[in-house]
Task: structure prediction
Amino acid sequence: MIYPMWSFEDNATSKGYMYIAGVDEAGRGPLAGPVVSAAVILPRNFSCQGLADSKQLTPLKREKFYSIIIENAIAAATAIATPEEIERLNILQASLLSMKRAVENIATSNKEIYPDYLLVDGIFKINISSIAQETIVHGDAKSVSIAAASILAKVTRDNIMRELHLQYPCYGFDKHKGYPTKAHKEAIAIYGPSPVHRKTFKGCHS
Result:
């Protein structure tokens, strides 16, 4: 089934909502680094052909779309949950926490605009009772706002992992971004987990 990328936003607008934010995360599967979320409110005239789930795009295209989204968004913000929070809460709850923070950060970055409706990727709602929400399975392929949030989250997280590579070069974070590749697991076996590894994750043990 083909989903028009604006259909969920249009439906929310028809109900009277004005600022519809797409929310998505990146980094649930890696063995290291934070989980990063983004919330994005796009203008109704936004057009960006080829915008899709960030996982389906090349790094170069993601960077290009990232710049376009940041330049044109009505409001956008990112947030993280740290490896320590992932360990303490579990990855699902940490992901939802980072999503909540991303939504709250929109208000911090833009005092005049705050989302009144959320389109959330997945099946779990965010713990913000004051804002109406709709969850969408595979939302990054069905909603333009969630697709935009997916790209901001992914690019932001990749940049964080490149920075962590400078601190912990032996793991190759700049290449695999913390995902459980063969090279990454071999590095953990040799050097043990770093302070930014998710030590309770399978495959994250020396």
Remarks:
- Residues 144-167 form the longest helix (24 residues).
- Residues 7-164 form a domain with the Nucleotidyltransferase; domain 5 fold (CATH 3.30.420.10).
- Helices lie at 7-14, 59-72, 83-89, 91-109, 144-167, 173-176, 182-191.
- The first strand starts at residue 20 and ends at 26.
